[in-house]
């Protein structure tokens, strides 16, 4: 269960206070698939970062499985992310000097898994996303679609129960977008919670619940 | 994959950055290594030169005035022979060779010659072992001249002119100086008479350009008997280690033998030692400069690296990397830079010393392997200290900003 209690995030700029998100409360039960839509600058990405504990709100709190994120010290918050959360980024955020295999190994390395187990699991995940022929290619040697598939495999490596996706299809063509959404739907059907930010109605249609954010508020 | 491989992948992916990060520290370490290497071999060369020069410290009766360093032992006044035992059994550092002498002029075949009694090395050793301590039992520190006391090493009699010590000399044997041998047409193996006693010439000494060329050398006790002087000597020549000569040796000998006069070729020694001290101080100055410049360079590069990689840092945090892990990644990188800087600095510095040593100091220079550990230690220390704050900065980066502002 992902619970959001009256969170707001303000930014100070030129002596003015800008509201990125304003007094949002939300409950996302385990296994839910929620899409958050809204125009550019509506606070979608800010909300997603707050949900993932990457950004501390000015007010309110986020509770994951009964644990308030703000009661945790940085080390424990990192452990919670490693344990429960999986991020997907619009620009994939692959580490450029690592191969596809090594990129997928990173969460496993963070978990302290030994090299052989890392390689076995990362190879399996890359095979699952159809990249078994590209294990040793660096991101620059992969197509955009292949890069997003590596990012999906990496996200799955630590077997997260909550997936936070920020415009996961933003850089992909319609065919590839459809594949990614089918993949996320399948993960949701396995029981994982998916929270996805998108501006694309067709993509949002894959979610069980659709929320719209305008000026930092859910409407 | 482990964190070391992770760090190496990043480092070697950006080879030009790696090179620029390492260059400042490599050059700095190289200069220090080069100076220390050249200075070390310069000191050894000085020690050898002093050794070749002969004695650099003279112990004389207090009544003697110093008109000529090398003929000072010809003047009136005596020291008891037991001072030799006192010196050889003392713990004074820097005494490489001792040569007690008793000199006085005699007539040989109508020519005035100086007869000098010397004590051979085997008698020193018996005195020292009898006392169970002293200069023979200490590790030697100056290098070149110290082998005189090596019990297993036999030295030819000609070494008397250089090392001021001779291995053995029998009561009926003499060594003759180059000039007197030439003047009287003496050859090795000839028999000569001195003070109505027969002696065998066992060696004609090489020319030295000093008063020794006109001297005849015999066993100290033989000369004492011939002249009825008893157990006395007129001087003790000391080959002192160059550093110790200007660093307490004279004072220590004076303290041990307060009623003797201790003189030294202080100008030569002081000049040489001052040059080396200058070089050492210069290397210390470079150490300070490299610590500041190299450290600043690495810190700057590391800050830039953190800023360039903030998206990557944000991603790692999103994947579950803790601040401790982020710190570890950057400090490991610093460690690798330190090792490469130290290694590169040592190799470059040694090459510089090998090439420039013969030109600027006129000496042959060889690698000094223990300097590798010095170079690595300094380099790693600088790299780790300089990288600490950038690494800490990396752990404090706001991951949300890192992910959004690229």
Could you please describe the fold and organization of this structure?
The complex is a heterodimer of chains A (219) and B (406). With 219 residues, chain A is α/β, with parallel strands linked by helices. Chain A is built from 7 helices and 10 strands. Chain A has one domain: P-loop containing nucleotide triphosphate hydrolases (Rossmann fold), CATH 3.40.50.300. Chain A is globular and about 50 Å long. Chain B starts with a helix and ends with a helix. With 406 residues, chain B is α+β, with helices and mostly antiparallel strands. Chain B has helices at 3-13, 15-53, 82-88, 121-131, 160-163, 178-183, 220-226, 242-256, 266-308, 310-319, 323-361, 370-396, 399-404; strands spanning 57-61, 79-80, 95-108, 111-118, 173-176, 191-194, 197-204, 215-219, 232-233, 235-240, 260-264. Chain B is 55% helix and 16% strand. The chains are: A alpha/beta (219), B alpha+beta (406). The A-B interface holds A 45-46, 49, 52, 54-55, 74-75, 78-79, 81-83, 85, 87, 89, 91, 93, 95-98, 102, 105-107, 109-111, 115, 118, 154, 158 and B 1-3, 6, 9-10, 13-14, 311-312, 314-325, 398-400, 403-404, 406.
């Amino acid at each position: 269960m992902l619970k959001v209690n009256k969170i707001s995030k303000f930014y100070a700029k030129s002596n003015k206070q800008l509201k990125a998100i304003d007094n949002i409360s939300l409950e996302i039960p385990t296994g839910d698939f929620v899409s958050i839509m809204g125009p550019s600058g509506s606070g979608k990405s800010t909300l997603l970062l707050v949900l993932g504990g990457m950004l501390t709100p000015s007010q309110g709190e986020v509770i994951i499985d009964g644990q308030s994120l703000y009661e945790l010290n940085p080390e424990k918050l990192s452990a919670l992310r490693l344990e429960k959360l999986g991020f997907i980024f619009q620009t994939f955020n692959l580490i450029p000097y690592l191969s596809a295999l090594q990129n997928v190994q990173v969460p496993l390395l963070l978990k302290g898994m030994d090299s052989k187990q890392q390689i076995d699991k990362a190879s399996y995940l890359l095979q699952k996303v159809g990249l078994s022929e590209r294990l040793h290619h660096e991101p620059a040697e992969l197509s955009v679609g292949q890069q997003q598939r590596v990012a999906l495999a990496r996200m799955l490596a630590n077997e997260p129960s909550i997936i936070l996706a920020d415009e996961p299809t933003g850089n992909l063509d319609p065919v590839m977008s459809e594949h990614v959404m089918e993949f996320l739907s399948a993960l949701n059907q396995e029981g994982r919670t998916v929270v996805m930010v998108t501006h694309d109605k067709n993509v949002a249609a894959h979610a069980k619940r659709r929320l719209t954010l305008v000026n930092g508020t859910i409407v | 994959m482990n964190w070391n491989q992770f760090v190496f992948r990043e480092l070697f992916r950006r080879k030009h950055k790696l090179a620029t990060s390492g260059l400042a520290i490599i050059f700095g370490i190289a200069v220090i290594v080069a100076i220390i290497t050249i200075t070390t071999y310069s000191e050894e060369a000085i020690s050898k030169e002093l050794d070749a020069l002969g004695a650099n410290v003279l112990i004389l009766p207090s009544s003697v005035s110093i008109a000529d360093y090398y003929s000072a032992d010809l003047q009136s006044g005596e020291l008891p022979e037991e001072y030799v035992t006192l010196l050889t059994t003392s713990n004074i550092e820097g005494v490489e060779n001792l040569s007690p002498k008793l000199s006085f002029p005699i007539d040989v075949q109508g020519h005035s010659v100086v007869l000098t009694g010397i004590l051979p090395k085997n008698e020193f050793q018996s005195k020292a072992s009898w006392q169970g301590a002293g200069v023979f039992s200490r590790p030697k520190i100056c290098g070149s001249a110290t082998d005189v006391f090596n019990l297993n090493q036999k030295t030819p009699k000609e070494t008397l002119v250089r090392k001021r010590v001779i291995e053995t000399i029998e009561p009926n044997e003499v060594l003759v100086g180059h000039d007197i041998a030439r003047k009287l047409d003496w050859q090795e193996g000839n028999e000569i008479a001195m003070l109505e006693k027969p002696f065998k010439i066992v060696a004609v000494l090489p020319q030295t350009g000093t008063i020794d060329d006109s001297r005849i050398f015999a066993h100290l006790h033989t000369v004492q008997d011939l002249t009825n002087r008893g157990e006395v000597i007129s001087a003790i020549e000391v080959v002192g280690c160059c550093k110790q000569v200007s660093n307490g040796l004279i004072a220590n000998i004076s303290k041990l033998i307060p009623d003797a006069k201790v003189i030294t070729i202080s100008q030569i020694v002081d000049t040489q030692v001052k040059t080396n001290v200058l070089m050492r101080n210069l290397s210390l100055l470079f150490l300070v400069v490299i610590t500041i410049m190299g450290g600043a360079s690495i810190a700057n590069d590391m800050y830039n690296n953190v800023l360039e990689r903030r998206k990557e840092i944000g991603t790692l945090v999103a994947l579950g990397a803790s601040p401790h892990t982020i710190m570890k990644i950057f400090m490991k990188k610093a460690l690798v830079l330190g090792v490469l800087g130290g290694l590169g600095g040592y190799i470059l510095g040694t090459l510089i010393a090998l090439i420039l040593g013969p030109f600027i100091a006129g000496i042959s220079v060889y690698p000094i392997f223990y300097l590798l550990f010095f170079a690595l230690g300094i380099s790693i220390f600088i790299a780790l200290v300089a990288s600490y704050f950038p690494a800490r900065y990396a752990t404090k980066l706001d991951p949300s900003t890192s992910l959004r502002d690229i």
